């Protein structure tokens, strides 16, 4: 790798600068190298030379490099500059990076949120449209995850909110009452905001002395039941203009309420259960745990009959 003084002319380069020294790289390859997608240094650098000024073609001397980089090899110097130096790119390259970052942020927002109007995950294209409506620029200086959390907060007025997590508390029978009482719930299957997950885990461990565990059934619970329907405009206008106070419907009789009581359902396996006890026992079965693994892998669940045929 030549380091002596010479004059070299290069064009169409991405320059990386560190401690007054520069290397000439191919556009877009520096980002791939830093992310680990590219490992071959020859594919990143246009020429294996360290410069004082790439634009003018002034090559750095060996004594200057040894003084600053403490007798490192030429290849080690290039790697350090590429990994830790300041990337100087053209306006076109910067715009391409911002578009890629905008897409990455939109994908993360789509995966973590729920649309109040539908109750389901908003499409990535819709999230990108919302981000442009709020004039979000997606800077490349912050990670996509940091920006996604910021975008979610700013999209709440547009009906996009963070999807809750569906959790299952797995405990011994002797710990059941204490754990549920500490959580303030009646059923071991619950919905919580993602920011409350650590608090829930801490409460469960404290109430059960570490014997009970939390199992994540769904990182982003969605469905029609999560839809937030605004009141119809016509009905709202009629209610506002009416001088009569609204009439309350008569309370249902005990017999009719029993008839309308819905059975409990497992959203993973699709089975219906007549009592809470049967519903809880189902979550402990191998059939349910097998379907959870299939769901995480993106595969459809097995019916109870098919599961026992293959087991």
TrEMBL record:
Gene3D superfamilies: Ribosome maturation protein SBDS, N-terminal domain, SBDS protein C-terminal domain, subdomain 1. Keywords: Cytoplasm, Ribosome biogenesis. InterPro entries: Ribosome_mat_SBDS_N_sf, Sdo1/SBDS-like, SDO1/SBDS_central, Sdo1/SBDS_central_sf, SDO1/SBDS_N, Znf_C2H2_type. Signal peptide: none annotated. Residues 266-288 form the C2H2-type domain. GO terms for biological process: ribosome biogenesis. It is found in: Cytoplasm. Residues 226-277 are annotated as: Disordered. One of its GO terms (cellular component) is cytoplasm. PANTHER family: RIBOSOME MATURATION PROTEIN SBDS. Associates with the 60S ribosomal subunit. This is C2H2-type domain-containing protein.
């Amino acid at each position: 790798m030549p380091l002596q003084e010479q004059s070299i002319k290069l064009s169409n380069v991405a320059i990386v600068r560190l401690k007054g020294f520069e290397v000439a790289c191919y556009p877009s390859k520096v980002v791939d190298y830093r992310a680990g997608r590219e490992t071959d240094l020859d594919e990143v650098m246009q020429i294996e030379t360290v410069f004082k000024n790439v634009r003018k073609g002034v090559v750095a001397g060996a004594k200057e490099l040894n003084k600053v980089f403490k007798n490192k090899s030429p290849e080690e110097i290039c790697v350090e500059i590429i990994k830790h130096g300041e990337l100087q790119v053209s306006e076109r390259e910067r715009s391409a990076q911002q578009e890629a970052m905008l897409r990455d942020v939109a994908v993360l927002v789509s995966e973590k949120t729920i649309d109040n109007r539908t109750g389901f995950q908003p499409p990535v294209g819709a999230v990108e449209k919302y981000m442009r409506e709020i004039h979000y620029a997606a800077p490349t200086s912050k990670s996509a995850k940091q920006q996604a959390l910021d975008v979610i907060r700013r999209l709440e007025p547009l009906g996009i909110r963070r999807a809750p997590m569906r959790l299952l508390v797995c405990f011994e029978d002797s710990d059941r009452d204490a754990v549920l009482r500490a959580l303030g719930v009646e059923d071991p299957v619950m919905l919580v905001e993602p920011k409350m997950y650590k608090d829930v885990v801490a409460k469960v461990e404290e109430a059960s002395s570490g014997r009970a565990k939390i199992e994540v059934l769904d990182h982003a619970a969605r469905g029609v039941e999560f839809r937030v329907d605004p009141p119809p405009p016509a009905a709202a206008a009629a209610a506002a203009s009416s001088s009569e106070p609204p009439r309350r419907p008569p309370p249902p009789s005990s017999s009719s309420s029993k008839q309308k009581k819905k059975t409990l359902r497992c959203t993973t396996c699709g089975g219906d259960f007549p009592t809470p006890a049967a519903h809880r026992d189902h979550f402990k079965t191998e059939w349910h745990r097998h379907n959870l693994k299939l769901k995480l892998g993106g595969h459809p669940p097995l019916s109870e009959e098919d599961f026992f045929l293959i087991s």
